[in-house]
Amino acid sequence: MTADEEIGQAGGNAPTAAGGRAEAEALAGVVADGARPVGAALEADVLIVGAGPAGLFAAYYAGFRGLKAAIMDSLPEPGGQVTAMYPEKMIFDVGGFPSVRGRDLVDALVAQAAPFQPHYLLGHQATELAHVEDAVLVTSSQGVHVRAKAVIITGGLGTFTPRPLPTGSEYLGHGLAYFVPKLDDYAGMDVLIVGGGDSAFDWAQSLEPLSRSVTVVHRRKGFRAHEHTVSNVLASSVKVLVDSQVAEVSGSGQVEAVEILHTPTGERQRLDIQRIVAALGFTADLGPLTHWGLNIQRRQIVVETTMATGVERVFAAGDITEYPGKVRLIATGFGEAATAVNNAAPVINPGAHVFPGHSSNVS
Ligand SMILES: Cc1cc2nc3c(=O)[nH]c(=O)nc-3n(C[C@H](O)[C@H](O)[C@H](O)COP(=O)(O)OP(=O)(O)OC[C@H]3O[C@@H](n4cnc5c(N)ncnc54)[C@H](O)[C@@H]3O)c2cc1C
Asked: With 50 as the cut, is the pLDDT of residue 236 above it?
């Protein structure tokens, strides 16, 4: 799957990339994969793979059920597609919110789970799954092992990979971003946004009031962004350069300037900027999950009504699930997350009920 969108970031009180190998190893004892020692592991009742809306709500529900949750995402910020593709857009079909901005919904989900202190492993892709005695062992791309009594896969479209800027990738994290951090980090900066899609124009619109200058550069004349947003941006102080591309990025250690090539004429101009947002789109791929023995049909995991996948101790919820009549929406993912956690509860703690009781009864 590809989409002409840039991967963005949630701001506010969202957790940031944390939970590196050293931290995880400090947290738990040594476990063994059968006869094979695998080193230190983080212990959890449930591991949630994917910190999109479904995964974040699953983290809340796990806490509500008294389960210790770890939540892993390959992205450095929580929020899944919302954070990656439309953090500034209003969402109108989440129950209880007549309208909610994408990033505010993610912040609220993080806040809702926070009292139960889920352990975030951001920037970790779940790569391997093994069954060990009465648990599963999941290994991350950073070599962290999580031993859990159950896994809930809330992996959505799969792992996002941003399309790189053809030049200047060495400045990633030094002024160049594929993920836009907190808007405040761009206050008073001269910002270059590369791309002509919704994300590029959403960021231009959001940054214009607080950055010193915003320039959008797009290699074509036409834009794929929503017409209304394009009109707003064109009517603002944002400078829009079309038929143009970034020819060179320069700076000593940090981005300081770019050279823009106007393709039809070959003319070059230098812009002094401190930040580049490359909103060039991304690819998404189930990647390692395809080797976990799951019943995958058309890039989705077939589940039962309990959200069980057929692989022992492994459940799924959210966009990644498939069954007749499936509707891929945030609201559906919330319901599936509750179903998955509550059906995992008796697997984790034999004797536990599927029905959690009513949260309104908790003081
Ligand atoms: C532009 C746009 C607008 C939308 N508007 C709406 C709307 O108005 N209303 C609505 O209901 N829905 C909307 N949607 C759909 C909505 O965003 C999705 O239904 C929702 O995000 C699905 O949530 P999820 O948690 O299941 O998956 P995602 O949001 O896709 O999150 C999955 C997460 O899993 C992670 N992941 C995947 N594989 C791994 C792995 N192996 N290891 C670690 N992490 C992994 C990914 O990095 C990602 O962060 C919109 C979607 C788009 C693209």
From this structure: yes
273 CA from centroid of ligand 1 (Å): 32
User: How many CB atoms lie under 10 A from the CB of residue 122?
Assistant: 20
Q: Are 58 and 161 in contact (CB under 8 A)?
A: no
Domains of the chain by residue range: 2-160+282-361, 164-278
Q: pLDDT (tens digit, 9 = 90+) per residue, 126-139?
A: 999 999 989 999 99
Phi, psi values for residue 296, rounded to 5° = -105, 125
C-alpha of residue 263 to centroid of ligand 1, in Å: 36
- Cβ(246) – ligand 1 distance below 6 Å: no
Which fold, 2-160+282-361?
FAD/NAD(P)-binding domain (3.50.50)
% the chain with pLDDT above 70: 89
Query: Ligand 1: which of 6, 81, 179, 334 to mutate, most ligand atoms within 8 Å of CB?
Result: 81
CATH number of 164-278: 3.50.50.60
The CA distance from 17 to 22, in Å, is: 14
Residue 38 has pLDDT above 50, yes or no: no
- CA atoms within a 13 Å half-sphere pointing along the CA-CB vector of 294: 32
Read off the pLDDT of residues 60-91 as tens digits, 9 standing for 90 and up.
999 999 999 999 999 988 999 998 888 888 99
The burial class, CB within 10 Å (0-12 / 13-18 / 19+), for 114 is middle
Q: What is the pLDDT of residues 209-222, one digit of tens each?
A: 999 999 999 999 99
Ligand 1 atom at shortest distance from the alpha carbon of 82: 17
